[in-house]
Design a protein that fits this description.
By secondary structure, the chain is mostly helical. It has seven helices and two strands; from the N terminus they run αββαααααα.
Length: 260
Amino acid sequence: MLGETFQVTADELKEIFNVRLAPYLPANLEKVEPHPSGWGNSYTFKPFTGREARPEEPERYWDDSRLAYRHVDKDAGRTESNEDEYDLREKARFFLSEVYRQARIEWRNAAHVAELKDVVKDTGDRWKAHSQAKRAVEAAFAYLRDPEAAKEWTAAISRLVDAQDAYLTAAIAFDLRAQEIAEVHDRNFHEHMLGFDEALVAAGYPEAKDWHIAPGDYYGKDYRGEYDAHTIAGQAQTLITEQDAHVAKVGRLAGAAVGH
């Protein structure tokens, strides 16, 4: 029985991959070579699409006499082999498991990217619309400090309200897509998963590095009817509340000054 670490000669590795495992390896495995670290092997696969079936070891590969356990030989009525042969079979089974483990990692990451391609859609356009709406609401609010605004105060406030409504609408529209993207990322969580930006770049959206996407469970309104501050809609809601409070305070102070 092999220990936690074991050595494999070059000849053994050739026999394992070229003979014993050949019928059972993933079809898109292209290369096996020693890992640069000196420990284990490095496996190169033809890229997965993520839409294939999940890679799994073939059923009952251990029935193969070149991979069989000792007890399988007994059950099959075959003559038991020597310890070196069983050690080589164990190494072969280990490498088969390792190949499929790496294949599943790459397949899962490809599936992550494929799912993102399905949900991103017009997210970029929605982000641009949100950014433009935010600049418009900031400009409308900044104008209130201009002396000219006093000559058309009601109209200026009305334009601010319109800009606020457009900003919140655009933020909510972006968040609908952002939530879908975040949920894809959450569903594809695993130890060797792609990073958020890395997955979106692989899906063909390098501009996504500028998108603000919160964790999936941050989306939607809370019991008070408010959006979480980590979301774009939450940030829009906060800015609008701050603007409204400022305008209301100005109105109160201006009214008090006139009263005196």
